[in-house]
Known about the structure:
About 10% of the residues lie in helices and about 45% in strands. It is mainly beta. Strand 11 (about 135-150) and strand 12 form a beta hairpin. The chain starts with a strand and ends in a 10-residue tail after the last strand. The strands form six sheets. The chain has a five-stranded antiparallel β-sheet with strand order 1-24-23-22-21, with no helix packed on it. Strands 6-2-27-26-25 form a five-stranded mixed β-sheet. It has a five-stranded mixed β-sheet with strand order 8-12-11-10-9, with helices on one face. The protein contains five helices and 27 strands.
Amino acid sequence: MLAAGLSLVPSAYAASANTNPAYQCHRVAVLAPDGTPISGIEDLAVDQRRQRLILSAYDRFAVQNALRHGEDPPQGNLYVTDIASLVKGAPDEIEARVLVTRGMEDVILHPHGIGLYDDGEIQRLAVVNRLADRHDHSAADLLLLEFMGDGLVLAGRARGDAYCRANDVTLIGPDTAIFTFDQTRCGAWGVWLERIIQPRRSGLRLTRFGQDGQVETKTLVSDAAFANGVALDKTTDTLLMTASRDGQIRHYPLQALLSGETDFAAVEVDGGPDNISVTGQGDISLTAHPVPFDLFLYMNGLGELPGSRVLLRRAGQDDFIMIDPDAEELPGAATSAVFLGERVVVSSAWDEGLGLCVPDGPQADGDRK
């Protein structure tokens, strides 16, 4: 395992140096209510209000196989597990519960990127719902869900070609989402072609959900190569976006971006960055694919499941640290990482369960809110 300093922060974000602990990682099986292991956990969101972790999961290969044979694809689910099960000790397995959704009887749920909004009163979850993800046909919805009791109720739904390659999403207000679109083509093998030639035409779109059911969408940025993760750093009012094929984390001042300006500070990443998360204190966590082409080969049945890399930076620190463990210590081709106190939880859209990384030393069971 390697935990090494990585100078990745632009000068505007530099602060005094800080010493980071090394992390020890191991895999944790996540069991559905029927006892079966959950695979394909694409994204994670930390629900501090209810002290639980929200998991976005569906089996991509099973869905693609069903669509290829003209069959109804299996459903995915939004799950929750208690944070307490992950912040003490070294669990080998944990249980997850299905987060019940209402008003979605006509929705085939394949949750991809998710974004949680909580202002202390209103709490909502935005979900990129991948209906189809194939070379010759891509389709997705953007769902706005409101917490009600212990479940969720549909509050808005955006559909159409503007969303067909939606990837990740963040809510900057209770009814305003910014999502990444990783490519521009929706079908006719255009998706596959773009993956080969890697044009810089992806980016960010903004969607406003009206109370009358109407939806407004506009493009904010369209010059990235495979825009992927997105998150809002509330401590600096900065929108962070990862561009996988560019090997960048982009920092956009939010208000300037909403006003039409597209200037950004770029942070170079060793690998292809995927989903990115920011805590309320400004701590940043993300995953990166060490060799993105290896994942492309695996997705097309031409190689082994690649390894994983995690990048972490606490607020006020100069550098990211990198967790680059042995393959068996984390789910392969990890797509999401979040802080839970001093610990880090890692998931993958391509593998089973979670990874749990615990810092060496007395911080191992510490709780940083």
